[in-house]
Amino acid sequence: MSALTIKPLLYVIAALALAVLLLGNRSCVQSANARTDAAKLDGAEELVARVRTERDAWKRQAEANADNANTCAASLKLMTTEYQRQQRDHATLDEQRRAAITAAELSAADSDRALQRFTAQFQAESRTATCGAALAALNTACPALKEY
């Protein structure tokens, strides 16, 4: 081999050796990056699993809340219906109460008029001689009736 071919061959060998070293270094860096990325991927998968679990828990809680809301809505509807019925009953009873009060007031007025008629008649007739004598005889016969 001649000196002309050896020197360029040495350069090629040096370049190839340098390329092998650089590729080896790059391979080590890539391997480290791959391990780091794999660890990150494992962490990300774990995070995804936790987030899914948390999401499912929130979904279950939301479903339970929706069920509770439906139960409350049904209870509210029932109570509203009952309240309206009670309002109608109250109005009916109030009307009956007013009618009873009016009837009682009319009856009391009739009784007062009858009492006034009786009192006026009693006073007028007790002044007549025969009625006055009868009342005096009654008072004598039964002193307990004196005030009546």
What does this 3D model show about the protein?
93% of the residues lie in helices and 0% in strands. The chain has two helices and no strands. The model has no long low-confidence stretch (mean pLDDT 88). The longest helix has 124 residues, at 3-126. It has one domain (3-145). The protein has helices at 3-126, 129-141. The protein is mainly alpha-helical.
Percent of residues in helical segments? over 70%
How much of the polypeptide forms β-strand, as a percent range?
under 5%
Shape: rod-shaped
Question: In DSSP terms, counting alpha (H) and pi (I) runs of 4 or more, how many helices?
Answer: 2
Largest sheet: none
Instruction: Please give the domain count.
Output: 1
- Could you give the distance between the termini? 168 Å
Average pLDDT for all residues: 88
Number of strands: 0
What is the string of helix and strand elements? HH
Give the low-confidence spans: none
Question: Could you say which structural class the secondary elements and strand pairing correspond to?
Answer: mainly alpha
- What is the C-alpha radius of gyration, as a whole number of Å? 58 Å
In short:
This protein has helices at 3-126, 129-141.
